[in-house]
Amino acid sequence: MTTEHDVTTATAPASGRGAAQPLLDVRNLEVTYASGAAAVRGVDLTVDAGRKLGVAGESGCGKSTLALALLRLLPAGTRVTGEILLDGEDVLTMKWGRVRAVRWAGASIVFQGAMHSLNAVHKIGDQIAEPILLHKKATQAGARKKARELLEHVGLPGARADAYPHELSGGQRQRVMIAMALACDPRLIIADEPTTALDVMIQAQILRLIEQLVAEQDLGLVMISHDLAVLADTCDRLAVMYAGRVVEEGPARDVYERAQHPYGKALSAAFPRIGDAGSRFAPRGLPGDPPDPSALPAGCTFHPRCPVALDVCGTEDQSLRAAAPAHLAACVHVGSPVPQQAPAAAEGAP
Ligand code: ADP
Ligand code: MG
């Protein structure tokens, strides 16, 4: 992660949101790394305030690339096109000073593996206070007070502000990461596998904490996980990514229980229960791996692994189409109803 700090004054994101304008509106996002890897391909997503979008998919499907793109945290030389409208303002065309302000006060990211994201030699209270000092024009004392309040808000005693990261458990460190993400009162939280490194009990506690904070503060949430069951339990809507594309999207329970895309079906079968330890790291029953984004197969990128692929799938890619109310899937088997008996024939019967 880039750790650039802004010295200019951070302001809240431009308001002026119309009632119909989503908090986050991603349009036709494409990300190609300097290596030529097409990691995100034509992604459209929206998140309203107070809503929780889950982004699912196996490792390598472009989920973290998407998360990093949202705050322009991708390495130099990466080509990013499309629009990322945060409160109507395009993150991709913002000046750097504005981007840095938005990174804390507009949207912030909680990463997987809190130990690596925290600085081992600084007290956690100071680490939480740092963005508050930089972006909120707070005094030292004010920032320290806010850091303690944030710790209490995420369920840790304020006195833990004087602890070093190694003195905390994995779950406590992830709570600290969430406190940091909340430090500058963002409107949107992006959580990239926030509980993957935690055991099942702690995972559930952290998920409930995130849900509670989102509801209390009317935040938008983009929660990324390879575990469809976890997302179905936490989020309102789910987007399933495969090879850089959203191949299925819909109401969370619907996508989990009645997946329409063969990849969505495979993922939900692979995560049969929430917090199933056996299936947490590799989906079961799905042979092979997602394709290398530098050498994508022709046609539907899932066809080489697809149990129901037709000849056409090797040559023609499918775009998202309606599978059920508010539920889209990009599959040749979806949205093309089986030809019906011609109604005229029934009418003509004696
Ligand atoms: P996920 O989070 O779903 O596991 P990633 O977004 O991390 O997926 O990766 C998507 C694809 O982009 C992978 O094939 C990965 O190897 C590739 N990738 C990630 N980071 C880079 C990079 N810095 N340069 C080139 N390719 C990258
Ligand atoms: Mg990732």
Description:
This protein has 350 residues and is α/β, with parallel strands linked by helices. It folds into two domains: 21-106 and 187-287, 3-Layer(aba) Sandwich (Rossmann fold), CATH 3.40.50; 114-185, no CATH class. Helix content is 31%, strand content 20%. It is built from eleven helices and twelve strands. Helix 7 (200-217) links the parallel strand 7 (188-192) and strand 8 (220-225). Mean pLDDT is 86; it is low at 1-18 and 337-350. The site of adenosine-5'-diphosphate (ADP) has 14 residues, from helix 1.
Topology summary:
Blueprint: E1 24-32, E2 38-47, E3 52-56, H1 63-70, E4 79-86, E5 89-90, H2 96-105, E6 107-110, H3 114-117, H4 124-135, H5 140-153, H6 170-182, E7 188-192, H7 200-217, E8 220-225, H8 228-234, E9 237-242, E10 245-251, H9 252-257, H10 262-270, E11 321-324, E12 327-329, H11 343-348
Helix pairs in contact: 4-5, 4-6, 5-6, 6-7
Bound molecules: adenosine-5'-diphosphate and magnesium ion.
Protein name: Dipeptide/oligopeptide/nickel ABC transporter ATP-binding protein
GO molecular function: ATP binding; ATP hydrolysis activity
Pfam family, one: oligo_HPY
If classified by CATH, what would the architecture of the largest domain be? 3-Layer(aba) Sandwich
Mean pLDDT: 86
Taking the alpha carbons of the first and last residues, their distance comes to: 73 Å
Cα gyration radius (Å): 22 Å
Bound molecules: adenosine-5'-diphosphate, magnesium ion
SSE order: EEEHEEHEHHHHEHEHEEHHEEH
What is the overall shape?
A: globular
The level of helicity is 25-40%
Across the major sheet, the strand order is: 6-7-8-3-9-10-12-11
Total helical segments? 11
The profile of the biggest β sheet is: 8 strands, mixed
- Strand portion, in percent? 15-25%
Number of domains: 2
User: CATH H level of the largest domain: which superfamily?
Assistant: P-loop containing nucleotide triphosphate hydrolases
The total of beta strands comes to: 12
Poorly predicted runs are 1-18, 337-350
Task: Fill in the CATH topology of the largest domain.
Answer: Rossmann fold
SS class? alpha/beta
